[in-house]
Design brief:
The complex is a heterodimer of chains A (252) and B (119).
Chain A lengths: L1 E6 L8 H14 L3 E7 L13 H14 L2 E5 H6 L5 H4 L13 E3 L1 H10 L2 E5 L15 E3 L5 E4 L6 H17 L4 E4 L13 H8 L8 E4 H6 L12 E3 L1 H9 L4 E3 L1
Parallel strand pairs in A: 1-2, 1-5, 2-3, 3-4, 7-8, 7-11, 8-9, 9-10
Antiparallel strand pairs in A: 5-6
Helix pairs in contact in A: 1-2, 5-6, 6-7
Chain B lengths: L34 H10 L6 H17 L5 H12 L6 H7 L6 H6 L10
The chains are: A alpha/beta (252), B mainly alpha (119).
């Protein structure tokens, strides 16, 4: 069994990086092969040199013992000043990346999904959709991925990062679908904010399978004719079926 | 080297030298850009521009204006194919025009911010 990990949460505020580490150790003990742990968004803080030495060292040791890739997303990292040698040199700064980790793009995440049998997602707190698989569940990667965006654009950087993840998956895995869920439905409002503009760019990246539930749209007072991109409006039962019929489900 | 030292070189007498740029030499404000600046930016990259570069730069600038974003390379190739024809919409053609990367170097010469997306 080949398994990869996708981790979002900030290591100080959320359990994600610690819970994923425990889960990876259990998987290793049960004979699974860990191919990749991909740290995205605030989770790249896990890879910051000297910040949480124990956690980073334990991840590095685990990855090394398995020959697994330990990746911090390069864009998320650079935005937060987590720099490898190559990134630090032009800025005349000191590298800040733990040497057990490497920086790489979202293409590596797509590849990890393609070559793994299972993906375990450790997300941010407060984003869990009750219909989605529990955080950390090892999900089959044989189906089409579904990304569920549950948060509004209050934290702009996190929203843009969520949308970038969808775009990258859609580029490499063309069957990728997107569900705007709960407060995430507010992202469908037209506007000129960076998050609105990024949503409008989704079709350019080949992401045409967008869904939202009628009840979520009503709750955020949006209407079918006023959405900023073409989006299928589903009844609750169809949303449940959508979540059931896609794997892995990545909730952001 | 102080953190503010730019890695690019520009002659002090050029307009480019007076504009705000990031550590990699990208303009901070796309509105500063015009064709003269494009030629100055290209000279730093040892690149000589003609109308083929400018038609791609126009596509990059239009995309950025609409979405606040630089397109991924494959998205750029598709837009070029749609707008400039089949024979130009290939990564080989774009790589020859911009040896430093169609998006990476293209954005610099088009006066756009350094692309930050990692795919």
């Amino acid at each position: 069994m080949k398994i990869s990990y996708l981790i979002f949460g900030h290591p100080d505020q959320q359990e994600a990086a610690h819970a994923a580490l425990r889960s990876a150790r259990d998987a290793q003990a049960s004979g699974a092969e860990i191919l990749c742990a991909f740290f995205y968004s605030d989770a790249v803080e896990t890879a910051r040199l000297g910040a949480r030495p124990e956690l980073a060292d334990e991840w590095a040791a685990l990855a090394q013992s398995m020959g697994a890739q330990l990746i911090a997303c390069s864009s998320s990292a650079v935005r937060r000043g987590v720099l490898d040698d190559r990134g630090a040199a032009p800025l005349a700064q000191t590298p800040t990346l733990h040497d057990g980790f490497e920086l790489a793009g979202l293409g590596q995440l797509a590849e990890a999904i393609l070559i793994s049998d299972q993906l375990a997602v450790f997300g941010r707190q407060g984003t869990q959709d009750q219909k989605s698989p529990e955080p950390g569940t090892a999900q089959s990667t044989s189906g089409s991925p579904l990304v569920v965006i549950t948060q509004d654009a209050n934290n702009e950087m996190l929203t843009l990062e969520s949308l970038d993840l969808v775009m990258a998956l859609a580029a490499f895995l063309p069957e990728t679908a997107l569900l705007f869920r709960g407060d995430g439905a507010t992202l469908l409002a037209p506007g000129e904010r960076p998050a609105s503009k990024r949503v409008r760019a989704l079709p350019e990246y080949g992401l045409t399978r967008c869904h939202v539930s009628r009840s979520d749209l009503e709750a955020v007072q949006l209407f079918a004719g006023s959405l900023c991109i073409p989006c299928q409006i589903d009844e609750d039962a169809a949303i449940e079926e959508l979540i059931h019929s896609h794997r892995p489900v990545i909730t952001l | 080297m102080s953190p503010k030292t730019p890695t690019h070189r520009s002659r002090a007498d050029t307009r480019l030298a007076r504009l705000q740029r990031d550590a990699y030499g990208y303009l901070l404000n796309p509105a500063d850009w015009d064709t003269d600046l494009a030629h100055e930016l290209a000279a730093e990259e040892s690149l000589r521009l003609d109308e083929r570069h400018f038609e791609v730069a126009a596509i990059l600038r239009a995309f950025h204006k609409e979405y606040d974003l630089s397109p991924a390379t494959r998205v750029l190739a598709r837009l070029v194919r749609e707008q400039l024809g089949e024979e130009k919409g290939t990564s080989l053609y774009l790589m020859k025009l911009f040896p430093g990367g169609a998006v990476k170097q293209g954005c610099k010469i088009a006066g756009l911010p350094r692309p930050t997306q990692c795919f």
